[in-house]
TrEMBL record:
Superkingdom classification of source: Bacteria
Name of the molecule in the record: CRISPR-associated endoribonuclease Cas6
Keywords on record: Antiviral defense, RNA-binding
Gene Ontology BP term (one): defense response to virus
Domain CRISPR associated protein Cas6 C-terminal positions: 86-206
GO terms for MF: hydrolase activity, acting on ester bonds; RNA binding
Amino acid sequence: MHNTGYQRGKRQFRMFTFSRLNGSYKLDRDSSILEFESPHVSFIFSAYDKKLIQELVSSLIIRDDFRLGSSQVKVVSIDQIHETVSEKMQIRFLTPVTMYSTFQLDDKKKTYFYSPLEEEFSGLIQANALKKYEAFHGKPLAVDKPLSLTPLHRERIKPITSKFKSTLIKGWTGDFLLEGDLDLIQLTYDVGLGAKNSNGHGLYEIVRNLRD
């Protein structure tokens, strides 16, 4: 599923996301290597396809130790997070949310990453979520309420640049207001908002539900 995903037109969507490793660490600035000081680390994995989660959990239970990079790790516990989504929520990004467009300039492929403060950002977020829904279900979703993502406390919205393989990705963290169709919001909660979800972008937690 990581290599194939769900198809919509020429686009493929890998319907999962994950957090960074959480734990006490120190950074070697010369080598850019994180060295975890605590013997215990944790991370969040989230997917829209519940079968994928069940298969992952079963695999970890059967084989409770595995290699992560150059380190041998052992699974101590697996917990399920229960959160109820609503049509209006304050959310906080645990990993940066990113949206971008690609275009040709002087025979070179260029990528433009949108800021959440730009007009186009929220509309692109909605279009991306609708494409994911159609790719998974095989049919478009008719929404009565458009999906919108609005930054709260604009001065606290933080740009984060990360590197995946040889590609630089610019994303944003902070608190946002998320409103829209409940089915579409559930999808974004499970798989992440925006682009590059399967690279660990767009994962969020619910700060509070804001039901009218």
